[in-house]
Amino acid sequence: MIEVTRDPIDPFALQQSLANPAAGGYCAFEGWVRNENEGNEVERLEYEAYDPLVIEEGEKVLVEARERFPYLSARCVHRVGLLEIGECAVWVGVASKHRDEAFKACRYIIDEIKQRLPIWKKEHYANGDSGWVNCERCASHGSAAAIAD
Amino acid sequence: MIEVTRDPIDPFALQQSLANPAAGGYCAFEGWVRNENEGNEVERLEYEAYDPLVIEEGEKVLVEARERFPYLSARCVHRVGLLEIGECAVWVGVASKHRDEAFKACRYIIDEIKQRLPIWKKEHYANGDSGWVNCERCASHGSAAAIAD
Amino acid sequence: MTSGMKTITVRYFAVFREHAGVAEEVRRTTATTAHDVFEETRDRHGSREPNGHCKVAINDHMAHWETPVNDGDTVLLFPPVAGG
Amino acid sequence: MTSGMKTITVRYFAVFREHAGVAEEVRRTTATTAHDVFEETRDRHGSREPNGHCKVAINDHMAHWETPVNDGDTVLLFPPVAGG
């Protein structure tokens, strides 16, 4: 299951929803808003998503991950709106019988999400500028933002 | 930091202790007690550790992981005593600037912990038998337990 | 002749929307593919790049730049994504 | 001759302790290496295997099977580990 939310992500509740008596391994990834990118001091991030296609494409990603690395349960939540430093922007959790599938499926999911889902990130810098990440040549906007983690 | 505890592990509190404004990626692994191993129905697990060497060797593992995959902060807790199905036996959390180091350091830490730290696991089966995992030829004990995840 | 003339809706996202100043617009067009729409709206989305790093969807499904555009379609123009 | 005769403490863990029936014991021995101690205590720890999958520590530091054993040492015999 993949979701888009405007509210803070609660990793603890999400993790509990993956509980499974047959699961021996659990891997989670969280993307946190960090205070620096490509040499620019970041004050906050703004995420925008096109929800219908985040869901459609995200569900494909979860299915692909299960085909490659059979897991028992997996879930992903991406937050949108304005986020402060330290906040969780994306959460991925995978429970599986053994740890190898949990690690690999979790990694696959976050990698694909970052490449494929219609989600955009605008960095707001300490100097007052802002810039859409990965879009330095997309349109004539101010700042030299580059590929973030 | 690595710890051994007899109390339930609290992933949420542990995760919060790794918060860092420079961290953009966080990866966690948990080993959960699962209800089956090598075809045997497991009712609970019993972990034993030799704490002084778990700490000494565990700290080495954390240092090695940081040398290989520079992270910002990492922590590991292993529980000992009797654990029920679904409980968390081991928790590893890593925060790093980018996600690659978080995933790889987390995986390195759990892999090494499982291979090197003086921790033993006894499975208690539904049929009343019990067996030390990985020790089927160590001594003349009852059950055919084998390598777990 | 109205052959090939169609009415489509174009939606702009993120930096494209900011540059266009609108989130969506209805256009009369002779575009035959999504790529044609991207080129035709270059002054709107403002991309200085070819469409390589951008993505396109038609009627809420991911599409390719060669996907045909039909009368009544909604074409979604996505700048390079940066989730996570 | 008491040459080479030393007093050591041997500690057994997990399945080794269960088999030995004691967690530790003081032994008089002529063992020169940790390996010698493992062999000499085979009836105690009960391992049917060579020491390959087992580990040994001396005085609370991980050791090798070839590590020398000195008078007064505490030798910790660890069956195959299974953390996590």
Descriptive notes:
The complex is a heterotetramer, with two copies of chain A (about 150 residues) and two copies of chain C (about 80 residues). With about 150 residues, chain A is of the alpha+beta class. Chain A is about 30% helix and about 35% strand. The longest helix of chain A is centred in the middle third of the chain and has 18 residues, at about 50-70. The model of chain A is unreliable at about 140-149 (pLDDT under 50). In chain C, strand 3 and strand 4 form a beta hairpin. In chain C, strands 2-1-5-3-4 form a five-stranded mixed sheet. Chain C is globular and about 40 Å long. Chain C has about 80 residues and is of the alpha+beta class. The chains are: A alpha+beta (about 150), C alpha+beta (about 80). At the A-B interface, helix 1, strand 2 and helix 3 of A face helix 1, strand 2 and helix 3 of B.
**Total count of strands of chain C:** 5
The rounded distance between the terminal residues' Cα atoms of chain A is: 23 Å
Any low-confidence stretches of chain C, pLDDT <50, length ≥5?
none
Helix content range of the residues of chain A, please?
25-40%
Defining traits:
heterotetramer, A: 149 residues, alpha+beta, disordered C terminus, C: 84 residues, five-stranded mixed β-sheet, 3 helices, 30% strand, globular
Summarize, please.
With 149 residues, chain A is an alpha+beta fold.
Record the SSE blueprint:
The complex is a heterotetramer, with 2 copies of chain A (149 residues) and 2 copies of chain C (84 residues).
Chain A: E1 2-5, H1 11-16, E2 25-32, E3 36-37, E4 40-49, H2 51-68, E5 73-79, E6 81-84, E7 88-96, H3 99-116, E8 119-125, E9 130-132
Parallel strand pairs in A: 1-5
Antiparallel strand pairs in A: 2-7, 3-4, 4-6, 4-8, 5-7, 8-9
Chain C: E1 6-12, H1 15-20, E2 24-29, H2 34-40, H3 42-45, E3 55-58, E4 61-63, E5 74-78
Parallel strand pairs in C: 1-5
Antiparallel strand pairs in C: 1-2, 3-4, 3-5
